[in-house]
Amino acid sequence: MKSNTSLMRPGRGRKRTAAFFIAVSVLVILALISLFPLALVVINSFKSHTQIMLNPFSWPTSFSFENYTYTWKIGKFGEGFVNSIKLTSSAIITGVLCSSTMGYVLATRRVKTWRPLTLYFLLATTVPLQMFMLPLYSSFVDLHLMGNVYAVGIAIAAWNLPMPIFLMRTYFLKVPYELEEAARIDGANTFHVLTRVIMPIVSPGIITVACIIGLFSWNEYLLTTTLLQSEDNFTATLKFLNLNGTFSRDFSVIMAGAVIMIIPMVVVFLLLQKRFIEGMANGAVKG
Amino acid sequence: MKTRKKKDVRESKLPYHLLSLPAVLLSGSIVLIPAIQTIFSSFTKWNGISKTKVWIGLQNYKELFHDWIFWKSLTNNIKWTLLFITVPVIVAMLASVLIAYYRIGHKTFQAIYLVPYLLAPTTNAIIWLNIIFSPSAGLVGFLQRAGWISITSPLGNMSTALLGVAMVDIWHYWGFLTVIFLAALRQTPMDQLESAQLDGANGWRLFFHIYLPNILPTVSLMMVLIVIYSFMTYDYIYLLTMGGPAHSTEVLSTYTYSLAFSAFKFGKAAAVSLSMGLIGSVAAFFYTWLSRKEAVE
After folding, report:
1. Distance CA B124, CA A57 (A)
2. Which of A132, B21, B77, B91 is most exposed, with minimal Cβ within 10 Å?
3. Distance CA A147, CA A228 (A)
4. Has residue B2 got a pLDDT over 50?
5. First CA to last CA across chain B, in angstroms?
6. Do the Cβ atoms of A125 and B261 come within 8 Å?
7. Average pLDDT, integer, range B96-114
8. pLDDT digits (tens, 9 = 90+) for B51-71
9. Could you report the per-residue pLDDT of A15-40, keeping only the tens digit for each?
10. Helix runs in chain A, H state only
11. Does B245 touch chain A if contact means CB atoms closer than 8 Å?
12. Which residues in chain A have Cβ-Cβ distances shorter than 8 Å to B228?
């Protein structure tokens, strides 16, 4: 992404006007709308079921983590997070391998197949999951892959492949050609060029792509709910859904469960914020 | 972007074909071949379990033509599309232009708006079902008991259920658009902005003459993607209402799912999903056309 500072400049002298305060208010109201349901969840996660029923806006009387430890145990979140990590790792490894190799082929255009492949993956962006989910379900049954979190991770990576490919392609395009040429003159073959020269340069791009694939597969619902059908291989999201089904009468458990789902995502996002935002922006911004 | 010249003619093509293999094999086996199987299944009567598929020609499609749930679903998908190409786009444009114009709290607001987008649909749906829409513990129930306004959960009412679901999905989605628009606004050429300011252009003129033309390619690309995704939408609808009450929030994807996994009519389900695919491919045509300049030329 271009790092010009146009965003920084036009604001000069625009502060402390009425319009400025209206603008800030609009942005703050939007922020409150985004956070309002989540803030309510956090507040209520420290309360008992009856306290929540009485008034969802009352402040908690005590801040103990009892709700959390109870919910973690009863919802089997430990098992759920392990499954989520397995599924997400499998999706990331598959997705990064396939998108970086294909991204390189599409960026260098040294073989004529780049054109049909580009068109295929552009079209694949628009294929609804339902178009291939039914036969995939039958194949998973036939191959005894139902409930296999690694296999489901690979399927999720396949479904979400086009975007990472085009994202990787933009990173490969930024690699100076001269660098590659110099390595070739020194006698390196294509695989050496790719692994020793190019991969180290595009590694920020690989981390970005991994973040985006990770986000999609961690949160994925339709494929996981279809292909994982016994409780012991449920991912964290399905464990939480299951908890909502069986404990819908106990609001404090649901609230604590929601916080358990929110915290890891927000922490990971804050740590890798730059990568996430770069990935989203580069995946969609033309130019 | 650089175009690369084919300098070394003797360079072997084989490594590049080998490098294409992982993605081709993965997408071919999990997306392409099953998609072709779905096209075939849509002309058959099949329960999804038995080995035999009975060829019935266009029967599934004829049934769909007289199936009111199918038309209801299609109508809902169109309503959904209209909601999503307006509401979140306008809100995101407003937020991103305000941030860019007044250069305030760029990183903070962006991060806050993005939080709902990062959370799983299951998490967001459960949160809204319990703390907002629930008549006993949610905001709706609280307002009801307080007696200020008579309010019920929009999800329980046939005329408002779709809006209720869309509200949750838009709440989760618009922050993502804001991030994209902000990134596009960043590429607004400095000289254009400066000369407009020297000319004394006000906020509106700046928006319509500088900002909007500059981010228009990104906005139109996002609108096409929104159309594509609107015809595929599933998660929030299924999690919040399961297509109900009385099919009032049924969309093509939820209908496909219930046909296949509740009614075991895999053939008919395939026909519905194929119609989704056909609509998607029309949108895909525009998508390819818009991204062609970037990816192909």
Report:
1. 19
2. B21
3. 4
4. no
5. 11
6. no
7. 89
8. 788 888 888 899 889 999 999
9. 568 888 899 999 999 999 999 999 99
10. 18-44, 49-54, 66-74, 77-108, 114-124, 129-142, 149-159, 162-173, 177-185, 190-192, 199-219, 222-227, 236-246, 251-284
11. no
12. 125-126
Query: Closest to A53 (Cβ–Cβ): which among B23, B35, B137?
Result: B137
CA distance A241 to chain B (A): 6
Q: Residue B1: what pLDDT?
A: 43
Find the closest chain A residue to B121 by CA distance. Answer: A219
Chain Cα centroid distance, residue B230: 4
B118 vs chain A: nearest CA distance in angstroms? 7
The per-residue DSSP string of A4-43 comes to --TTTSTTTT-TTSHHHHHHHHHHHHHHHHHHHHHHHHHH
Of A226, A155, A220, give the one whose Cα is nearest residue B262: A226
> CATH classification of A70-284 is 1.20.1730.10, yes or no?
no
Take residue B144 and report the two structure tokens written for it.
């009801």
pLDDT band of A14, cuts 50, 70, 90: low
State residue B69's pLDDT score.
Answer: 94
CB-nearest partner of B48 from A138, A184, A265: A138
